[in-house]
Amino acid sequence: MAELARLLDAVHMAAEKLASTADTKVVLREVLSICVEATGAAGGSIYIHDPATKTLRFLHVLPDEVERKLERLDLPDDYGVAGDVFQSGKTQVNTYGTEGDPHRKAIVRRTGLTVRNMITIPLQITGLKPIGIVQLVNKRLGTFDETDEAVLDTISDVATLAIMNSRMLDRSTKVAALEGMGRAAHDLANKAGVLVTFLPDFERNLDGLRAALAKGDANADAKFYMEMLQGTYEDVFAPYSQRVYRYAKLINDLAAGKELVPQRKVRNFATVVREAAQYMESSARRSHVRLAYDLQLDAPEFAFDDLYVIRIVENLVGNAIKAVNETIPDAWLAENGSDEEATYGSVRIQYRLAGENHILIVSDDGPGMSPGTIRQILGGSAKSSWEQSTGSGLGTKVITELASAHGAKLSIRSKLGEGSVFEVDFGTGEVPVLPKVETLARTRK
User: Fold this and answer.
1) Once rounded to an integer, what is the mean pLDDT over residues 66-75?
2) Would strands 345-354 and 289-295 be described as parallel, antiparallel, or unpaired?
3) Biggest alpha carbon distance in the chain?
4) How far is it, in rounded angstroms, from Cα 152 to Cα 148?
5) Is the alpha carbon torsion for 112, 115, 118, 122 positive or negative?
6) How far apart are CA 31 and CA 158, in angstroms?
7) Which of 8, 12, 54, 299 has the most CB atoms in a 10 Å sphere around its CB?
8) φ, ψ (nearest 5 deg) of residue 113
9) How much is the pLDDT for 106?
10) CB of 342 within 8 A of CB of 336?
11) Spatial distance between the Cα atoms of 217 and 85, rounded to a whole number of angstroms
């Protein structure tokens, strides 16, 4: 269960990069950091392929103290383990023992780091050639195994798309990016689907364990661990594996231009909004932005698709965080930039019942927008919801597409220099009922 939680956490971290507007090298370093953290590796390196020179360009190494001691050496794209993995598109695990990799004596001399075990993965979307590779070394506990391969394989899809997204230079490449998004999401959906297929077996085994404990005089420890297993299944395995699967399918449908059909279920709207916004807390702290909540928890429940709402909230809050961060003066950053607790501006997440309508509001202290930019966003043709950003505009497009498919109405109030207010009206929450079609019963004579 811990492995599943690790997978889902890693996928979420990598998915945040889909809307990244950072320089490609910055995104690559973040991707490497995610891979190191997700597998418990001591460090690693990332290479990106240069088709012109047929080399794997050495870009980043973690941890930082190792990077400072290494020369930046590019590799031929068919050289060594890195070249084998790049050419084949298949992950490779190597174990060298306590003496380390005999071919890496130079690294040992420069850094003092003995490479005992290593995993090398291709950065690729299924069906396309790799764009680079990631090498991780020295798993802190044990050796790299099939679970690490599965985690990295899933991250690779999302991370590769993040890298491709950050490379987009103008809107003319958006069609190609959407095609790539569709491929990645389709492959991710297949992998998440494997998790979903294991749910019935897991539940049956859990029932069997519960029955066995009920027959005998099980001690308190056994009962405790059974309860923990049950809780993990209910709180993590079942809901989050389904959510990963549904999210991948949703992105695939968006990219393919398919009709979106929300799965409505009666829920507490404020709880779902709070959960989605809290996912953005770490991003807000890194950007020196405070998230403020004003949620009407006692509003009546109504039928909505929680995945649609989560994506709308995360995209709106993510855009607002970036907008506020854009306004921070360089002098303030120079003085406070290293302190994540220091905040410069805020993003407010509100939910209230206005009459019978359920209203979601996300407002920020950002630079604001011109009327022309607002028209572009509402028309689905905006490049970005903040003036200086070089983003692809896919974030705002997802918001408008999901709101429209759910029958919600998006409105924006903003002035340059005064921040922005995004309001999504989900209406009364009543599901439209299609008219019944009368049929004539035929009787045999």
Assistant:
1) 65
2) parallel
3) 96
4) 6
5) positive
6) 10
7) 8
8) -95, 115
9) 57
10) yes
11) 53
pLDDT at 190: 52
Q: Which two tokens stand for residue 144?
A: 């790299």
Q: Compute the distance between CA of residue 193 and CA of residue 241 in angstroms, rounded to an integer.
A: 8
List all residues 6 or more positions away from 59 whose beta carbon is below 8 Å from its beta carbon: 25, 28, 29, 46, 47, 48
β-strand partners of 409: 425
HSE (side-chain half, CA atoms, 13 Å) at 16: 22
367 closest CA partner among 344, 383, 386, 343: 386
Kind and range of the H or E run holding 133: strand 132-139
Which pLDDT tens digit goes with each residue over 52-63? 888 998 888 888
Q: Tokens at residue 402, please?
A: 């999901």
Write out pLDDT tens, residues 381-421: 554 443 344 343 456 777 888 898 898 999 999 988 889 99
Beta-carbon-side half-sphere exposure of residue 353 (alpha carbons within 13 Å) = 14
Are 60 and 48 in contact by the 8 Å Cβ rule? The answer is no
Q: What is the mean pLDDT of residues 218-236?
A: 66
Pair type for strands 409-414 and 75-76: unpaired
- Give the pLDDT confidence score for residue 253 in this predicted structure: 72
Angle between helices 394-405 and 174-215 (to 10 degrees): 60
**Cα–Cα distance for residue pair 209/223, rounded to 1 Å:** 10
DSSP 17: G
Backbone angles phi, psi at 290, to 5 degrees: -100, 130
Using only the alpha carbons of the chain, give its radius of gyration.
25
Percent of the residues in the chain that have a pLDDT greater than 90, as a whole number: 24
Upstream peptide bond of 239 is cis (omega within 30 degrees of 0) = no
Closest CA to 310 of 260, 250, 368: 250
- Tell me how far apart the alpha carbons of residues 65 and 341 are, in angstroms, rounded to a whole number: 26
- With residue 59 as reference, give the H or E element that holds it: strand 55-62
Task: Give the C-alpha separation, 295 to 300, whole Å.
Answer: 12
Instruction: Choose among 124, 115, 127, 123: nearest CA to 41.
Output: 115
Predicted TM-score of the model (pTM): 0.53
CB neighbour list of residue 204: distance below 8 Å, 6 or more residues apart = none
Q: Which two tokens stand for residue 231?
A: 């809780």
Within 13 Å of residue 220, how many CA atoms lie on the same side as its CB?
A: 0
Q: Is 264 exposed, middle or buried (0-12, 13-18, 19+ CB in 10 A)?
A: middle
Phi and psi torsions of 92, nearest 5°: -135, 135
CB neighbourhood size of 77 (10 A): 21
